[in-house]
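G., the chain you wanted modeled:
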Amino acid sequence: MPRLPSILLLLLVSIVQYAHALEIPKSAEKPNVLFITIDDLNDWVSILDGHPQALTPNFERLAKRGINFTNAHCNVPVCSPSRTSFMTGVAPHNSWVLTNGDRVFDLHGKYLTLPELFTQNGYHVMGAGKLFHGSGNDYRAYFGIYGPGSGNQGGPFTQDELNTQNQNPTNIVNRGPGKLQAVLPMNGMPDVRRTERHRNNSFDWGPVNVSTDEMPDGQVNAWAIEQLKETHDKPFFLGVGYYRPHQPMFVPEKYFEPFPLDSIQLPDVLEEDLDDLSEYAQKLALYPLTSGSHDGVVEYNQWHAAVQGYLASVYFVDTLLGNLLDALDQSKYADNTLIVLFSDHGYHTGEKEHWGKMTGWQESTRVPMIVALPKSCKKSEFTGKRVDAPVSLVDVYPTLVDIINLTPPKHDLDGENLFEVIKNPESRVAITSVARGSYSIRSQDHRYILYFDGTEELYDKKTDPEEWHNLATDPDYQRVKKNLRKHIPADDHVTHYVRAGKWKAVIYNNREAELYEIVPGTGGGGGIGETSSVAENHPGILTKIVDYLDKNPTRTKRVILDIPDLEG
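Predicted structure as tokens:
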């Protein structure tokens, strides 16, 4: 009998029909890993049916050779904490990396990141683009070799060209004949987020007269393809981080061509969608937090153009993905490379009158996720498989540890091997943290949101897939809500989450406290984005809140207080 390739023997997966139990692939001989992350990509890919005009044939191509997790969710719907969760395998409510003001680099080696884990397990670790969040200099040390970064806001403009103060009202970019030419902002909208300080205006979109190779993502892709052409003397981990469709949605002109502006379909919305939400939830929806405001998009008649820009950006990334898969298939590593692809979180395009992310709703939390075993496993029961059970990005780390048989890190992992989820999908939920003390729980059929102030939302996904009708107070759904609430993290180190007027306070067991102002804006503490506490700036506010709790003790962790004479 001819000897089968060792990788086939090690990774071939069979199904035991009688017991209905799947064998989980294990490997003693390490496969290569192609680790692909995408920024701000929601479910607008054809494999998830998120938008009927999405043009993503290469996502379909990858899904056909792997497992399409159709109910995957991020652990925090914003860049830094989301990337920390999948790079460490630690849930945000345990790492306490919850906003873009918190970074994995500030944990000082407390957790072993994925690239470090693969290095310790004998891999040649390479990366390019946006894999962590932050300056490229912060995380190049985590990799053996690092290629191009994501440029300024994903390119092609410099920071000075995107500077808000220069765009008063416009900034003309002209780098000479045949070079980059544009009038910024392309959408003609004022910057409602960056007015307090010298920053890029990223809430913009439009076609640019550059080639794919001139875009940072194109350069990242070209570099990764070159690595696949090289001869490596040990298994490799190759991380490829695409920046688009993250705003600003600038991509070369040809990617806009399949989406004529007069044929763009806007997302389905309900005019009174916010009427059954709490005051805090409405602020989360309406404030220009991670993007601009919906009122501004409508006022400047830019909704169709913004959707066009997002679709074009998704198509751009899909094309890059196709080129990368072609290079892998043509390389000597075609048969023994494991592929993992996902987005760090989603992105609203006007649903619930919101733009950007940092909400607990579907548009922010749901992401594409595909895991494709090496081609040697092409007869596997996992080829072209669709999995509808809820999973999350924190599951990626333990999955790679288990199926590649890596020596695990010393720190505890919060996720679960995705192949175990396939075996036992019952009662699974995906937990998403939305800043400090607010959580979104996604089960197979429902979404439950509990905010830091105790207000709630509940949606029946079978009858209300768009999450338009809040059933949190419906008597018929109280048992469902009670069961989902059991999955809310205890946060035992916190005694109280408090909303008092426009203020949010987090009181810890050791009597330390943080204070955030629930207002728009990214400066001065980040406003509702909670990038840094403003407790030192407003000691009187915090003192009044703590004193009130001392005089009016309550065992309820999440409270709304009406405190007389509260400043502000």
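Residues 69 and 353 are 28 Å apart (CA to CA).

Shout if anything looks off.
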